[in-house]
Specification:
The protein is an alpha/beta fold. It contains 11 helices and 10 strands. A hairpin with a 2-residue loop joins strand 9 and strand 10. Bound molecules: D-malate.
Length: about 240
């Protein structure tokens, strides 16, 4: 198995696909997707384009849908929700489809959607992602960070490192055995450095600071937790993620 990490959707190759592709947006799109599915959302359908989301969701009965829209960390006018995982209650989500667009995370999912196996990962469901990879043993794995508008993000990189760190332990191999590129080695080093203070790292992250300015400190606390939800979002059809199993 070779694992490649790409810091942003923009840096992800477009000419071929991986056997298994994993999108990460710790702050906060993939944390929100995991949470929505954990409390009973029927599925999460992702869009990079707001107009397409509005068009597609229009054909769903209002009581069967929710629209989540975020730009720049803030809620988009006309949507039911922004992008806080803490808004995902079972009363709200139960049996509804969440139509979602965010600044970067939904683009990361879009860029890998042609892969035979597409997963959404965050720190909160790291263990579920690792278990899937260990049991399916794909030959090539791409991990794609959402980043921020084309730039590197600490929180996505540390999560890629956390996934690789657990895979190395579970597969009983070395970093050298599985690292497909230098970015993965860097991600593992970042995780090694910060694994005991992930919340502290999120406070250093530029998007973490942006969310703090928007008064979202509880979101940072929630998203910094590791392995708290045994939920794996997996793509069932293009752009539609459901709970695996
Ligand atoms: C994104 O896609 O960039 C985000 O998830 C931003 C956020 O809502 O925190």
């Amino acid at each position: 198995m070779k694992i490649f990490f790409y810091h942003t959707p923009e840096l992800t190759p477009v000419q071929n696909v991986a056997d298994c592709a994993i999108a990460i947006d710790v702050l906060r799109a993939t944390s929100t997707i995991v949470t929505a599915l954990s409390v009973g959302a029927e599925a999460v359908q992702v869009f990079s384009d707001l107009d397409k989301l509005m068009q597609e969701s229009e054909s769903w009965a209002p009581e069967k849908r929710l629209r989540a829209g975020e730009r720049g960390g803030a809620k988009v006018a006309g949507c039911d929700l922004g992008n806080s995982p803490l808004d995902c209650t079972s009363e709200l989500m139960h049996d509804r489809r969440l139509f979602m667009t965010t600044t970067n995370g939904t683009r990361a999912l879009e860029i890998i959607q042609a892969s035979p196996s597409v997963l959404a990962a965050a720190l909160i469901n790291r263990r579920a992602v690792v278990d899937y990879v260990v049991s399916h043993r794909p030959e090539t794995v791409w991990i794609v960070g959402a980043g921020w508008e084309g730039s590197f993000a600490l929180e996505d990189t540390v999560c890629a490192g956390a996934i690789a760190h657990s895979l190395i332990a579970d597969l009983n191999c070395t970093l050298e055995d599985i690292a497909g590129n230098d970015e993965l080695t860097g991600a593992v080093a970042l995780y090694d450095q910060w694994k005991d203070d992930l919340l502290g790292l999120l406070h250093h992250a530029s998007h973490g600071k942006r969310l703090l300015r928007l008064d979202c400190q509880d979101d940072l606390k929630y998203c910094a937790q590791t392995d708290v939800l045994d939920v794996l979002p997996i793509q069932r059809e293009i752009g539609v993620l459901v709970k695996n199993g």
